[in-house]
Design brief:
Elements: E1 2-11, E2 14-20, E3 25-29, H1 36-48, E4 71-79, E5 85-86, E6 92-93, E7 107-114, E8 125-134, H2 146-155, H3 171-184, E9 189-195, H4 202-209, E10 214-218, H5 229-232, H6 234-245, H7 247-275, H8 277-280, H9 313-333, E11 340-345, H10 353-367, E12 372-378, H11 381-384, E13 392-397, E14 403-405, H12 409-420, E15 430-434, H13 437-446, H14 450-453, E16 464-467, H15 473-482, E17 488-493, H16 498-509, E18 515-519, H17 531-538, H18 544-548, H19 555-564, H20 571-582, H21 588-593, H22 597-612
Parallel strand pairs: 3-12, 3-13, 10-11, 11-12, 15-16, 15-17, 17-18
Antiparallel strand pairs: 1-2, 1-4, 4-7, 5-6, 7-8, 8-9, 13-14
Length: 613
């Protein structure tokens, strides 16, 4: 599942806001004390508050302008909810078949805390699913016991032809039959808050919870204490991640132990009743457990026996950087079972500028994996400039002094530029213009090959690559500065769209001394990626006939059918993997094997020629 948005109501400085998230990368920007950390901590409470007593809502978290409304709400919307789950018995179903999705087809989970008392306890938390639910009875079917479901089924059995085939011992099958009958008879749907914190529905929530993303928050201002392991010891993350993959089995063990102990506890209480009924009257067996990851403890210790959490903040952050770099390599080489959200506050803290760029490139690599989502906060222009404008979240104070999310795209960009002090200028005397951001990734990766850098080194000559469609914040600013400038432009476009081919021809047939163009001889930029590298990375097989005609194959479309559709991956993510991690493996020899080397050499020779004009 992917986190699509979080809604906060009466939580700290936010009266009522919704933050939308990109499924890959998100960078939250705003001045100090504007509410960036509040969003991160709200997500931490939502995902991890049930398992960690140190992560909890306090009455002081209630917005001071909440008036008579003494409830805090943290709601999250999730997409990609098609996985089969077992809600009861051993029968598989989906959230869609159980009508547990909202009108937008998202799983919408709302957690509500009653803050009217001096202290908040576990009983003050209510958990709801906001669903577009069939209006059959006042009480949602998923909240009903099997005895209640049987009564409804019995009342309509004369109208159900397959009544005798229904398994009356399986709640999910009875629900399906009831749903089918009433929906066939055109029952209405309405927005319904389904209380899944009630005793009868707690098991449903525990099963759904298994499919939610794993959330890790790394704060920039943690204290240097032994218990502060999440930020200091990446092995804690690995432990929690490994346990998440076997959580279903662990919960089964927990339930078995609970049932066995409860039998002994209840027998003990019954015997006590025989001796003293008054003492036994209010006794019951209650299971108190710790989080599974608290059972396992790993440390990173140097040769002198000094643990990582006793080192300086810069060293700890450097270790965190190393963890993410290792994680980036891992996710590129294997498929992950669970979606993971990494939320990092100010990754630039205590880091040299070179490391800042390195860690950001690592985050981008990780975010391009379909099972990972990144949420960052930053005050650094360099980090903001490396992502697409739609991946930026900007917070500012409105005229009433309240924090709000800026929705208008132009206002957001201008606000970020002003807030971070980004100067809209181009320092290159030559810009390479390409179609999109993935084309930038490809050129940046192959330009590092010695054979091409020997022709012209793009970095040494300060030559920028600019996407004409989309692009990151830096590109967005740069495009506005090209018009009317003396900056030379070399346009490199795919040949699959005739409009772009005509544009290149016009540039070259009517030279203005500032702009030149090249159309690729192959269909698209992805056709320059050797197919054997794709096979190795994606663990797929590409037929020989396709390889023989590689220059004219629609590669992203091919990989969607062979790889993307099975993993619910969009074509843009396929392109990111191709031009990102796979393109980094390209060598001179692999380009020669597909007869693409000489053409790319021509590109770099043309770049050198224009640069020397």
């Amino acid at each position: 599942m992917k986190l699509k948005w979080v809604h906060l109501k009466n939580f700290r400085g936010y009266k009522d806001i919704t933050v939308n998230f990109d499924e890959n990368m998100n960078v939250i920007i705003g001045k100090n004390d504007i509410g960036k950390s509040t969003i991160m901590e709200a997500l931490e409470i939502f995902f991890n508050g049930s398992n960690n007593p140190q992560i909890k809502i306090d009455v002081d978290d209630l917005n001071i302008y909440s008036d008579d409304d003494k409830e805090i709400e943290i709601s999250c919307g999730f997409s990609d909810c098609s996985d089969e789950i077992i809600i009861d018995s051993a029968t598989k179903t989906t959230l869609n078949r159980e009508y547990l999705l909202n009108k937008e087809g998202l799983l919408e989970v709302k957690k509500v805390w009653n803050c009217s008392k001096e202290k908040i306890t576990a009983s003050d938390l209510k958990i709801y699913i906001n669903a577009n639910y069939p209006k059959i009875t006042d009480k949602p079917l998923v909240n009903m016991k099997i005895s209640e479901l049987k009564k409804i089924l019995e009342s309509i059995k004369e109208q159900i032809e397959s009544y005798d085939d229904i398994k009356k011992s399986v709640s999910s099958e009875i629900r399906m039959s009831i749903y089918n009958y009433y929906i066939h008879n055109e029952c209405e749907f309405e927005e319904t808050l389904i209380d899944i914190s009630k005793e009868d529905a707690k098991d449903i929530w525990s099963k759904i919870n298994l499919f939610l993303p794993v959330f890790f928050l790394f704060r920039s201002d943690r204290s240097n204490v032994d218990s502060d392991s999440e930020v200091q010891n990446p092995l804690k993350i690995a432990t929690k991640n490994a346990l998440k993959e076997i959580e279903y089995e662990l919960n089964a063990i927990k339930k078995k132990v609970e049932e066995a102990v409860k039998v002994i506890g209840d027998n003990t209480i019954n015997k006590l009743k025989e001796m003293n009924e008054e003492i036994a009257a209010n006794l019951e067996t209650e299971l108190n457990t710790k989080a599974w990851d608290s059972i396992f403890s790993f440390e990173l210790i140097d040769g002198k026996g000094i643990p990582l959490n006793k080192r300086g903040s810069g060293v700890r952050r450097l270790m965190l950087l190393s963890y993410f770099r290792a994680e980036a390599e891992r996710v590129m080489s294997e498929s992950c079972k669970n979606d993971i959200i990494y939320a990092i506050e100010e990754p630039e803290t205590s880091q040299h500028p070179n490391y800042q760029r390195m860690i950001m490139e690592t985050f981008i690599d990780i975010s391009n994996d379909p099972n990972h989502q990144i949420i960052l906060t930053t005050h650094t222009p360099e980090i903001a400039k490396m992502v697409n404008p739609e991946q930026l979240v900007f917070i500012k104070r409105n005229d009433k002094g309240f924090s709000e999310i800026v929705k208008d795209e132009e206002d957001k960009i201008n606000g970020i530029i002003d807030s971070l002090g980004i100067l809209p200028n181009i320092t290159s005397k030559l810009i390479i213009c390409v179609e999109g951001e993935t084309d930038v990734m490809f050129l940046e990766n192959i330009s590092k090959l010695k054979c091409f850098a020997d022709i012209i080194d793009l970095d040494e000559n300060n030559i920028s690559i600019l996407p004409m469609k989309g692009g990151n914040l830096k590109s967005w600013i740069g495009k506005n500065c090209l018009d009317g400038s003396n900056v030379k432009e070399m346009h490199l476009y795919d040949s699959d769209i005739q409009e772009y081919v005509n544009l290149i021809n016009d540039m070259n047939n009517k030279p203005d001394g500032r702009r030149w163009g090249i159309s690729t001889k192959r269909l698209e930029i992805e056709n320059y990626i050797p197919p054997h590298l794709i096979e190795e990375r994606l663990k797929i097989e590409i037929e020989k006939e396709i390889k023989d005609n590689w220059h004219k194959i629609d590669v992203p479309k091919l990989l969607m059918s062979k790889y993307g559709q099975k993993r619910n991956i969009e074509e843009k993510q396929i392109k990111c993997i191709l031009n990102g991690s796979i393109a980094k493996q390209i060598t001179k020899e692999s380009l020669e094997e597909i007869n693409a080397y000489e053409e790319i050499c021509e590109w770099f020779r043309k770049i050198k020629e224009i640069n020397n004009v």
